[in-house]
Amino acid sequence: MIPERFKPMKRFFIPLIIFIGISASSFANRIMIPMDETQKNHLKAYGISFWVLKTYDQEIDWLLNYRGGSFMMPYNQRFASEMTIRGVSFEVISEGDAASILDQISAPDVNMDAVKLQKAPRIAVYSPKSKLPWDDAVTLVLTYAEIPYDVVYDSEVLETKLPEYDWLHLHHEDFTGQYGKFFLYKDYPWYREQKSAAEQTAQKFDFDNVPQMKLAVAKKIAQFVAGGGYMFAMCNATDTFDVALAADGVDIVESMYDGTPADPDANNKLNYDNTFAFRNFRTIPYPYEIEFSDIDNQPEQRGLKENNDFFSLFQFSAKWDPVPSMLTQNHQSIIKGFLGQTTAFKNQYVKPEVVVLAENKAAGEARYIHSTYGKGFFTFYGGHDPEDYQHRVGEEPTDLNLHPNSAGYRLILNNVLFPAAKKKKLKT
After folding, report:
1. How far apart are CA 121 and CA 129, in angstroms?
2. How far apart are CA 214 and CA 179, in angstroms?
3. Residue 186 has pLDDT above 90, yes or no
4. pTM for this prediction
5. Among positive and negative, which fits the CA dihedral 350, 356, 362, 365?
6. Smallest Cα–Cα separation from 138: which of 128, 129, 130, 127?
7. Which stretch of 53-57, 92-96, 189-193, 346-350 has the lowest confidence by average pLDDT?
8. Helix (H, G, I), strand (E, B) or coil at 246
9. Which strands form 113-117's sheet, in the order they lie side by side?
10. Strand, helix or coil at 200?
11. Among the listed residues 235, 121, 102, the one whose alpha carbon sits nearest the alpha carbon of residue 181
């Protein structure tokens, strides 16, 4: 029999345990993923955020300009365990600390803001099914960050499959139908395979030639964006997309591509109203020159070498311009440059309504641009591989295990999460 003096302890023992449990959880119920220099793996941090959104349908706070654009979410042991497995740095903070951070961010005199990430976007990568002799930076970083995506190409686009997705990346593609202007490689197996596959697709959809088919693909993609889609393009997918749209109804390619010579007056017939980002450019019809137009700031024109090639991110108002702020979140403001078949965009050809996100002012070039098109958005990023200054045909793909904190690759992943955000109206 329990002595009477011990009975009150029995009455209060279980409530005390419950109180202690509640108190302990209240001091540790948010996870902060810092994105400043303390982060061990910036690239996989995006993958974790995408995984939380997609797998658990859990909203995430993207803290713009706070510690490099950090992420904050409710504490969950499964989240913490997965971050440990993937090597992502995180901090467990109390609800009070989280509230203090949000208060700091919301202060009107501070260039910070919190944006809600609500739903993981459905991602498609426009890329040929066959293996080409070069890799693609976006597929590399999506794979490394463990972000799932589907591959689509001409047939899927022409069959109107794009509305099944929210976000589309354009492979380093030539939408003018000139096979990247790699005519000098015409006897290589990969070139013959690419040419044969494109001709078969053109025939399947009753086009007279590949340039006509590629133009139709570009117009379908433009419809996808105008309807509210998000498009991200790199390297020569940027300028060839606009060149193809501007040349709708004009023959800008030589006979080895479509069986007829280019229109000698083609440049006077271009329609820049059709384009996304560029105006007043001239096409380059010569089949042995790998440039498609004068939009690209070519290496010999830039006056830059690897040791002095850098571009600067603009800083936007997080509260007034959250869209460009999201796209420029980084732990570095100066990014090392890298070449591509299209490296950079000459400033004089960028439309005035397009927002320049990053530039090399000395070279007179924009490197990273963004704007709206209809109800959707597009972003163009010059260059081929942010961690390989001059990637050559046939070289091994970049191993991102060696570059987990790549500032250049972070810009790609900003675009991947951007469609998940609840957006405010663009003010710029």
Report:
1. 22
2. 10
3. no
4. 0.91
5. negative
6. 127
7. 189-193
8. helix
9. 91-93, 30-33, 70-74, 60-64, 113-117
10. helix
11. 235
Q: Return the amino acid letter for 64.
A: L
Backbone angles phi, psi at 165, to 5 degrees: -120, 160
The 10 Å Cβ neighbour count of residue 170 is 25
User: Closest by alpha carbon to 210, among 244, 257, 268?
Assistant: 257
Cβ proximity of 179 and 198 under 8 Å = yes
**Token pair in block for residue 138:** 């976006």
Residue of 88, 87, 58 whose CA lies nearest to 75? 58
Residue 7 has pLDDT above 70, yes or no: no
Each residue's pLDDT tens digit, 118-156: 999 999 999 987 766 567 999 999 999 999 999 999 999
Q: Which residues pair with 113 in a beta bridge?
A: 64
DSSP string, 316-377: --TTT-HHHHHHT--S-SEEE----SS--EEGGGB-TTSEEEEEETTTTEEEEEEEEETTEE
Taking the C-alpha atoms of residue 282 and residue 288, their distance in angstroms, rounded to an integer, is: 17
In eight-state DSSP terms, residue 288 is: T
Domains of the chain: 4-117 (3.30.70.790), 123-420 (3.40.50.880)
Q: Rounded CA gap, 179 and 88, in Å?
A: 40
Which residues lie closer than 8 Å to 156 by C-beta, 6 or more apart?
Answer: 162
Do residues 183 and 263 touch, judged by C-beta distance below 8 A? no
Q: Give the distance, in angstroms, between the CA of residue 163 and the centroid of all CA atoms in the same chain.
A: 18
**Tokens at 377, concatenated:** 């958005």
The total number of residues shown for the chain amounts to: 428
CA–CA dist 369, 228 (Å, integer): 18
Cα distance between residue 352 and residue 308, in whole Å: 28
Nearest Cα neighbor of 182 from 257, 255, 80, 107 is 257
* Strand duo 91-93 + 150-152: pairing: unpaired
Instruction: Write down the pLDDT at residue 298.
Output: 85
Over the chain, what is the mean pLDDT? 90
How far is residue 175's CA from residue 211's CA, in Å, rounded to a whole number?
A: 7
pLDDT in tens, 80-95: 999 999 999 999 999 9
Q: What pLDDT digit, counting tens, does each position of 375-384 carry?
A: 999 999 999 9
**What ranges in 187-314 are assigned the alpha helix state H?**
189-204, 210-226, 236-246, 255-258, 299-302
Question: Which of the four pLDDT bands, split at 50, 70 and 90, describes residue 393?
Answer: low
Helices (DSSP H) in 271-327: which residue ranges? 299-302, 322-327
Where is pLDDT greater, at 426 or 253?
253
Q: Which amino acid is at 172?
A: H
